[in-house]
Model the fold of this input.
Amino acid sequence: LIDTIEYLKKNYPEIPVILDGKFADIENSSKYYAKLAFEKFGADAVTVNPYLGKEGALEPFLERKDKGILILCHTSNPGAKEIQECSVLVLTLYGSFHSVWEYVAHQVVHHWNKNQNCWLVVGATFPEILKRIREIVEDLPLFVPGIGAQRGDLEKTLRYGLDSQSGGLIIHSARKIIYASKRKYFADAAKEAAKSLRDQINILRDRLRS
Amino acid sequence: LIDTIEYLKKNYPEIPVILDGKFADIENSSKYYAKLAFEKFGADAVTVNPYLGKEGALEPFLERKDKGILILCHTSNPGAKEIQECSVLVLTLYGSFHSVWEYVAHQVVHHWNKNQNCWLVVGATFPEILKRIREIVEDLPLFVPGIGAQRGDLEKTLRYGLDSQSGGLIIHSARKIIYASKRKYFADAAKEAAKSLRDQINILRDRLRS
Done:
């Protein structure tokens, strides 16, 4: 991992490195995880899990103004329903929230994003939830896994996920690209798979704009 | 980490190794995290985060009948209140549940513990919640961090946390032991700190038994 990131930083410094560590621990441990991610690995952004809340857990990440903090909100796996869709009733000045993921989205926008470095992670496999999250968070950027091997719907991801400027999304595909081929020219196959997804995204986005 | 665990396994094979990785990811990643924890590191147990739910996330851990799976329920940090204490209303055959941590405790006992390998992680810093969790989970074992540097209450931890057989608890102190001294004889100081905590636990437990 260190070698890969070093190679990227040296040869493609314009590519942001997101370390998908899904971190969350008590403050003393999170401090060292943040150090590990940003100093040792040189990541530009990390994913974090919101279950421990902000105080004494995620602050060592959130205080890094120069880094992106991608907070799990509604994940792409089927079990996302179990805890994240738990029925909740929270009334706030900004409206009422009926599930854990809605409440997480609300807390991030209104209480965790003081340094304007927060993103939400929202799986492409639940498009109606993506739509509702875009409404709650307005133009906060979203990181969307689940396209590719997990079969999320790309068209709906763009239709529901793009912000008011037709941007604000990182759409993430891993296995469909890195395992595009197991043959000798696997690297070329991966390149083609990445290009093809990029082109599909741009075509769909242009269509939605017009 | 690998060296420390190897040393323990060779010299003190009776000591269980709990890898506090707070894992939780989509199934494909969790599969490799479980492999890393149990095969590469040789851990006997791991901690996991319940936010992603069981399906397509924690199954690669839970299916390991030979390993302990310690699931975060109510953590020891102050931010535990934010998401874990969110007001919920879930009605089940077994009763009604009013917060996320109560619901997690319920799900673990009734749906995640098929292999009898689940523990709950409950911080010592919220003793009233520990009490309620012991009621919900009956004799399920509990892992209790927060004694020591985080100033959890040891007497209440035992009073509320012990199971019906006066057992079922692992009480965890880290910094108070490993940082007991920074001098030359730090190892002896750590040994004394561990012994002292053990003795306190045993004295309190005997008192509660009688």
Q: What stands out?
A: The longest strand of chain A covers residues 68-74.
